[in-house]
Predict the 3D structure of the following.
Amino acid sequence: MATLLEVKDLRTEFHTQDGVVHAVNGVSFTIDEGETLGLVGESGCGKSVSVLSVMRLIPQPPGKIPSGQVLFQGRDLLRVDDEEIRSVRGHKIAMVFQDPMTSLNPVLTIGTQISEALELHLGMSKEQARKRSAELLKMVGIPEAERRLDDYPHQFSGGMRQRVMIAMALSCSPQLLIADEPTTALDVTIQAQIVDIVKRLKHDLGMAIIWITHDLGVIAGLADRINVMYAGFVVETAPNKEIFANPLHPYTLGLLGSIPRLDESRKAKLTPIEGLPPDLIEMPKGCPFYDRCVFRADQCANENPALELAAVRHSVACWNWQDVQKKRGAYLSARA
Amino acid sequence: MTASISVSMRSDGFTRHARSPEARLLSRLARNLPALLGAMVVLAVVIVAIFAPVIARYPYDQTNLDAIEQAPSAAHWFGTDALGRDMFSRIVWGARSAVFVIVMVTLLGLALGVPLGAAAGYFGGWVDTLVMRVADILFAFPGLLFVFFIAATIKPGIVAWARSIGLTDLARSGYLDYAVVIFALGVVGWAGLARLVRGQVLAVREREFVLSAQAIGVPTWKVIARHILPNALAPVIVSISMGMGDIALSEGYLSFLGIGLQPPTPSWGNILADNAGRYWRTFPQMIWLVLIPGVVLAAVVFAFNFLGDGLNEALNPEISP
């Protein structure tokens, strides 16, 4: 498959009164056409900031992207002019946000909002856009689509609004859909519906997806490849099954250890990751996970490991990944 | 006030069909008696202003020295003044002056205040600093004093300039007075609106649907005009409505003090001023001379304020008792 998007050494920082917040620290990844990439990590680890940087939606100031390249169809999106990036947004790369309750404009009808991108990027007339909007609503499973075009967002439930957001994002048939925690604000049953809709549409339309989540359960059924992020770094990247079968970074292991499982005893306790993520203003010199790591060694305090290839298509940023591989059984069984 | 829940359940369980935001606003407004009265007074004044030539029974500047200072009668509903002019006709034409000034000052204030405030709020940085410092300077002066200062100083200059380029008719007519009053009030009035719009834009800008619009590729001006401003409008509407009362009052002050609209152009302010001297000398006999224009002006000011209050409650039902 051809490469669709290549992010190289992306750094994003925010200049605040307290100092420079290093939100994204040299992230690199690629997405092939039609591939689904999962970005996983806890709050504040740079998942959203890295994709917002790709879209150039970081407010500047206080945000700043001091280095990096975002290659999309031969262009570096960080260096094209404003008009060109706008022609990419919503047209080639579209985005769905976390909270459907606040992502729709309360004073405009749903129809107007879906039509906006169609009129903007595809030059459709009002009537054409309206017709297409109704088709899109039908596509995401909203009943009586035609009539609901004239409804306002407050007349929709959360799950229905997220469907509307997806319809909006897919209106111009983008090659890449960025979904920033699209299920986090929804009930579990609705989450499953949204995941199913996205899976079906991906199958029908063949776009690539970046799916951001802190829920490994959601991503397990969806992604081709998973990037685990921590403190603005990608600490492990591997194909979907591999990351669950062969986790090599202590943080990934920690995430897996903190998920409840249906197949274990009800008395089993979850293993939390002790401690807090590092201060992004004063980043530690060594590995950012050092303070919380149960596998740490002296070297980890002083040198930050780079991603290294550990298995087929599987890279990890850890000095002791071989050690982790040997001892992880004991770590995971500790809770049973 | 009880909240209206205008949702009917259909058999298939979908709620259907909430009224449009405008309809809900109007129905909430209609249940507020002071606001309704205010709206009716405002509407009446606007109608009188539009149809002044039809409603007035005499030309506003027609003197009749056989009938000076008459009390209200069938021939002269509001009596006559010291020159025998029909007071009713002058009050009616005065409504036209007042409405014209109110509308123009409001438009000028909107034209300056909304874009400047929106730009300051959205872009921040030096744009914000520049706009808000200028607004602060305007705020530093006691409001009306600054208006008086502008009106009193620019008028002779403008009249002289009109004469110098051969527009003697214009210089002699009352139109330049309107321009001076509108300019003076508008130039001072935009600052409050700009500050209000800026604050609203600052708040709305952070809401997620703005990011969502940007992510679709909507150009900046359209993000501001279509997504931010409509969501920032409610307090602006209230402020405009209340501000219209203030404008009517300010125009009255200016004309009363002789630096606004000049006689014979009728304005409630200069009618009051014309009649005041006569009234005091014969106190308390000719009370209609000042009572009628005074009550009319006060009624209009109160009407705008009640309407503004009502709009405030209708637009923010959650804060009203």
Notes: Confidence is low (pLDDT under 50) at residues 1-16 of chain B. The interface with chain A takes residues 14-15, 18, 21, 125, 207-209, 211-219, 226-227, 230-231 of chain B (CB under 8 Å).
